[in-house]
Amino acid sequence: MPMVPIVDSILRGPEPGRVKAFVVYPMNALANSQLHELERFLEWGLPRDARPVSFARYTGQESEERRTRILAQKPDILLTNYVMLEYLYGPSWTLPTSTSMACPAMMSTTSWTPSGPSRT
Average pLDDT over the chain, rounded to whole? Predict the structure, then answer.
């Protein structure tokens, strides 16, 4: 998946404290691969405080503590799978009206600020 348009959008309009892009993969292996590519593209050679875009993987592979920390930090880009996306929103959620579909595998929203996963 081309990440350049997503990263460009985040760099042009930084808004800390909100997830700007969900990247949803059908398999954890794809999310893992993309995580590695984002690390190479956005972190290698840069000091931690000079990294302009934050990102995290939110799958069943992370501990509950790590997932809680990810949600509290609200990275710019959240790599996930459809199971964890449903876990975040619950089984009967609908997309906010501000959601745009940049491509079939990516959802971008300007209003997602959950306090953490909850099941209702």
Answer: 74
pLDDT digits (tens, 9 = 90+) for 35-84: 888 888 887 766 667 678 889 999 989 999 999 899 888 999 999 988 88
Q: Which residue matches tokens 């491509």?
A: 103
What is the reported pTM?
A: 0.69
* Domain annotation covers residue 120: no
Q: Is residue 79 part of a domain?
A: yes
Q: CA 101 to CA 109: how far, in whole Å?
A: 9
**Does a structural domain hold residue 72?**
yes
Q: Which residues contact 27 (CB under 8 A, 6 or more apart)?
A: 81
What DSSP state is assigned to residue 55?
E
Q: Which CATH number covers residue 75?
A: 3.40.50.300
Which has the closest alpha carbon to 7: 55, 79, 45?
A: 55
Tell the burial category of 104 from Cβ atoms under 10 Å away from its Cβ (0-12, 13-18, 19+). Answer: exposed
Residue 119 inside a domain? The answer is no
The pLDDT assigned to 13 comes to 87
Looking at the 3D structure of the chain, how many domains does it have? 1
